[in-house]
Design goal:
Rossmann fold, six-stranded parallel sheet, single chain, 2 domains, alpha/beta
Length: 439
């Protein structure tokens, strides 16, 4: 597919997998950066796109003397393309990594197709600028190259990471956050910039150099003192109430129920807005909710996100077991309906085994949800420690506490400045990235 461009295009945008976040980024660039001309392939059969898109584009992209910059996602084998089209080799070549195949989770390492990661390494070698959507994405890729190349039986290349690193930079994925004020319940208040704790750490979409070392955060399995703030709040509340009433029992009287604030009476609304795939670890998420149900804790549930051909079996089982708690189940094709569901939720949970950025979590935070994320992957880079859990038991305790005190989640102002990840904040850096000339 070719998207319409200006009379004299200067930026050639190529996307072999035109769907999801890949599509959103390409559309943003084409709509807002002058001189862009886009060629795409539908977001189907990812493995075949990675194998064959270079040949397709070599035959379908016309020769154009006005091109100055080539921008592509890392699905494209750029090395093959510039070999097939020497006229494109002269351009400033920018590759954007939404994810990387060196650490992308597979059921068994033997199932990992060496060719996909190898192609990404080769593409980096011929690129002029290599851009990652997070520091975690960049560091996990670069640090994995030496061990990845050891899979080659003999005559292994060396120091490829040292050749690639000088070309690399982090530029966060730009999100177009809509105005959701009309959809927010009265109890939700969006954060103000002065409330944010990360404003100084996230500047123009690039983490400060001292923040790109994630080793401690990825391996630390100990809860810091500041992580216990919610537990302390609950303990104080329990002491004030003297004894927590069993939530399985109905109130003794209407007056007792009316004595509670409205925020406390409504059950906690938990949302899971991720793809229905194994790498998002739905098994862990649903095991937490089934445990909450078994302990008679009140909650409501919305399971959103896209469903593919063969979703994990846990979704069918979980729907049967959690049916009385379900408000929404399945992908909401209407953007307004999706945002309304997020605005109505109290807590958003990730149990991912793979996440290089996490658009869905940031969109939920933008809609006023309290985030609970693994203390791993990209999450320590974006979310303060109080929103991270290191073990399943920690996650359960946080959800349990919120079920007992839903108002604690509803009245909390999340300390994440989502505007730092907005297109308006990042636009200038993308425009600079796509300017003609060598880096």
């Amino acid at each position: 597919m070719q998207a319409e461009g200006p009379q004299t295009p200067s930026v050639l945008l190529l996307e072999p997998f035109y769907g999801g976040s890949h599509k959103q980024l390409l559309d943003l660039l084409q709509e807002n950066v002058p001189g862009c001309c886009a060629f795409t392939l539908p977001a189907k059969k990812w493995h075949w796109r990675a194998r064959t898109a270079a040949l397709h584009f070599s035959q379908t992209v016309p020769t154009c003397s006005s091109y100055r910059v080539l921008f592509s996602s890392s699905v494209l084998n750029l090395c093959e393309l510039v070999a097939l089209r020497p006229d494109l080799a002269r351009l400033k070549k920018v590759m954007y990594f939404h994810e990387n195949q060196l650490v992308y989770p597979v059921q068994k390492d033997q199932q990992r197709d060496f060719q996909y990661g190898y192609n990404q390494v080769l593409s980096c070698l011929v690129s002029d600028v290599v851009v990652f959507n997070s520091a975690f994405n960049m560091e996990s890729f670069l640090s994995s190259i030496p061990s990845f190349m050891k899979k080659i039986p003999d005559h292994r290349p060396r120091d490829l990471d040292l050749l690639i690193r000088p070309k690399c930079r982090v530029l966060y994925y730009p999100i177009q956050f809509p105005d959701v004020s009309r959809l927010l319940p009265k109890n939700k208040v969006l954060p103000r910039p002065e409330d944010m704790s990360l404003t100084d750490d996230v500047t123009d979409g690039v983490m400060r150099s001292e923040d790109t070392s994630l080793t401690d955060d990825l391996t630390d399995d100990v809860t810091r003192p500041e992580d216990t703030s919610l537990t302390n709040d609950v303990t104080r509340w329990q002491e004030e109430q003297q004894a927590l009433r069993c939530v399985c029992d109905p109130p003794d009287s209407t007056s007792d129920q009316m004595a509670e604030p409205e925020d406390q009476r409504r059950p906690l609304h938990i949302v899971w807005p991720h793809r229905w795939e194994h790498d998002k670890n739905p098994e862990l998420f649903f095991s937490m909710l089934i445990r909450l149900k078994q302990n008679c804790l009140p909650f409501q549930l919305s399971v959103l996100g896209e469903t593919f051909t063969d979703p994990p079996e846990i979704f069918l089982k979980a729907r049967r077991e959690l049916e009385p708690h379900i408000l929404h189940w399945g992908f909401l094709p209407s953007r307004d309906d999706y945002l309304e569901a997020l605005c109505g939720a109290d807590v958003v949970v990730s149990t991912a085994r793979h996440e290089f950025f996490g658009v869905a979590m940031l969109e939920a935070v933008h809609c006023g949800c309290y985030p609970l994320c693994p203390k791993a992957l990209v999450y320590p880079e974006i979310f303060p420690a109080e929103y991270l859990y290191a073990t399943p038991q920690q996650l359960y305790k946080r959800l349990q506490a919120f079920c007992r005190r839903p108002d604690a989640a509803r009245r909390h102002v999340v300390k994440v400045d989502t505007t730092s990840f907005s297109w308006m904040a990042l636009r200038h850096r993308f425009e600079t990235l796509l300017e003609a000339g060598r880096p």
